């Protein structure tokens, strides 16, 4: 694999995803051993004239010989295309490049709610810009994905819960976004979009765990009691993650209590229908 020499990629040290994939570039040999640096500590030293805010929003790749900088998906294309030239024509295909730029932006502008950075966030003077349309797109994506998986999983619970209509799970997920949004708006409106993004990441991650059981159920015959027990186990993990994330955001226990009350209330309503 060919190494892209004399280049350094500036990653977000507060973003676990960024740390992982840039380290993978170095470990795989796509970049040299000194081919990555955290923009929080080395941006000015690597390239004093860099567009700092853009480098925070879109990962920057700096040519240390001539100071040339590429940003975002173009940086990734340059690293991967140099190591694997077979992808070069695909990366130069404009419709593909445009689509990947949107996918990259979708992930980058939501990266802090996909995996929260921890309590170090905010120490660096430049922080990722907030793009409302990308956050709304993320909420829609996670809502539809979660609703779809829950609708499929509901068929595994028919011996324990009545099967609802084809849109029940979508209404439940969408209703929680609205309900929790109204709750947080009463005392921490400035954290509304950050909280909703984190909450829907939890829901989507939980649905992905249910997807694993769905796949297993289609290949192995399991006792029916396994499915509700597994569902409760996933719900417990989601509960703990909700506590952790609201703690990181400094939001206390109110939202966790209302999050649980909403779900318990809906469960009672479903059982009494």
How is the topology of this model organized?
Elements: E1 7-11, H1 16-28, E2 36-38, H2 39-46, H3 52-57, E3 60-63, E4 69-71, H4 73-83, H5 88-92, H6 94-108, H7 111-114, H8 132-153, H9 168-185, H10 192-219, H11 226-248, H12 254-272
Parallel strand pairs: 1-2
Antiparallel strand pairs: 1-3, 3-4
Descriptive report:
The protein folds into two domains: 7-114, no CATH class; 132-272, no CATH class. α8 packs across α9 (168-185) and α10 runs antiparallel to α11 (226-248). By secondary structure, it is mostly helical. The protein is built from twelve helices and four strands, in the order βαβααββααααααααα. The radius of gyration is 22 Å and the shape is globular. It has helices spanning 16-28, 39-46, 52-57, 73-83, 88-92, 94-108, 111-114, 132-153, 168-185, 192-219, 226-248, 254-272, and strands at 7-11, 36-38, 60-63, 69-71. The N and C termini lie far apart (61 Å). The protein has a four-stranded mixed beta sheet.
> How many DSSP helices?
12
Amino-to-carboxy terminus distance: 61 Å
- Tell me how many strands there are: 4
Which strand order do you get reading across the main beta sheet? 2-1-3-4
- Largest sheet: number of strands, sense, barrel closure: 4 strands, mixed
Give a nutshell description of this structure.
With 273 residues, this protein is mainly α.
Using brief descriptors, characterize the structure shown:
273 residues, four-stranded mixed β-sheet, 2 domains, 63% helix, single chain, 4 strands, mainly alpha
């Amino acid at each position: 694999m060919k190494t892209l020499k004399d280049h350094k990629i500036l990653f977000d040290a507060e973003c676990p995803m960024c740390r992982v994939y840039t380290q993978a570039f170095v470990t795989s040999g796509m970049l040299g051993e000194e081919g990555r640096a955290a923009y929080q500590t080395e941006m000015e030293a690597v390239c004093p004239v860099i567009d700092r805010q853009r480098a925070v929003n879109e990962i920057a790749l700096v040519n240390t010989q001539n100071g040339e900088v590429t940003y975002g998906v173009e940086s990734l294309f340059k690293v991967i295309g140099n190591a694997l030239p077979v992808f070069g024509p695909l990366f130069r295909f404009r419709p593909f490049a445009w689509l990947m730029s949107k996918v990259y932006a979708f992930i980058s502008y939501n990266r802090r709610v996909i995996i929260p950075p921890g309590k170090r966030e905010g120490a660096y003077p430049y922080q990722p810009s907030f793009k409302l349309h990308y956050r709304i797109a993320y909420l829609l994506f996670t809502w539809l994905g979660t609703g779809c998986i829950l609708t499929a999983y509901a068929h595994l619970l028919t011996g324990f819960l009545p099967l609802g209509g084809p849109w029940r799970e979508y209404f439940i997920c969408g209703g929680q976004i609205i309900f929790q949004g109204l709750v947080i708006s009463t005392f921490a409106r400035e954290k509304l979009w950050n909280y909703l993004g984190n909450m829907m990441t939890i829901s989507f991650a939980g649905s992905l765990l249910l997807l694993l059981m769905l796949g297993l159920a289609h290949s192995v015959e399991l006792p029916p009691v396994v499915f509700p027990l597994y569902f409760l186990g996933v719900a417990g993990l989601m509960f703990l993650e909700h506590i952790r994330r609201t703690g990181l955001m400094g939001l206390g226990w109110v939202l966790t209590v209302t999050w649980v009350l909403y779900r318990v209330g809906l469960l009672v309503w479903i059982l009494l229908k």
